[in-house]
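User: Fold this; tokens only.

Assistant: Input:
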Amino acid sequence: MRVLLLVNATASSVTPRKRVILRKELSTRHEVEVAETSRRGHATRLAHAAANDGFDVVAVLAGDGTLNEAADGLAGTSTALAPLPGGSTNVYARTLGVPVDLGAATSALLASLERRSFRRTGVGLASGRRFLFNCGVGFDAAVIRRVERYGELKRYVSHPLHVVAAFETWFRHYDHAHPRFDITIGSEHIDGCYFAIVTKTSPYTYLGPRPIHVAPEATLDTPLSVTAFQRFDAPTLIGAAVSAMRSRKFIERRRGIVHRAGIERLTVTGRTDFPYQVDGDDLGDTAGLDIAYEPDAITVVLP
């Protein structure tokens, strides 16, 4: 097979040595070319060009943000996406069952290509930008933006930084007094939201080795799930975080948390501009979002 190895050299787990070993291993059985991302959005263009050039697979050694861009470039094509663990969290790769160790992940990829373990699946679409596992609206997007301010430090202590940034954002950098947006799902209106997670697959993310399941019913084969927070007090947020790592009973029973599954389309209307992110990538502020489920969008390589 023709394989494009797409590498983000600045990703948390990527080193020159790992890149060389990976290419050598893949080249023993396949025709491999390497491309390196150099700027925001570059992975989308490289992946789309690879599909147009007839590559069978784009293997991505990077974090979830670069993987998201590559998926956006491959949507609607037959070229398969193969995630490899190059970031600090690697949510989508772990969701698919890709090993966290790069050596084991490489062996798994070779075996998958040998037996052509490809699967067509859907994605989410947020005002034109696709997402593989979640779109965060409001608070969690603000947290991700805060993490990005730490620059290179994120490469080495990403998970502790996210915890620190969450507390900093809640205490100092997010409006507690006024809801930021409203959500419309068909004829239902969820008014006065501070924070929402639109989920395509579960888990929502990982904290170290522990998965955080906001919408455990979300799979590769389902449409979207939505979890919206109309309350923004500490007991609600902390209780929801703990619940997502355990039984989820708090999320299901807490007043002020609305959860819906099987969603094909929703609209987020801002009361003021609000931040949003897709697959952990901060996309700035917006006045509104149209979010939809896009079935049969991409081909993924399964271990």
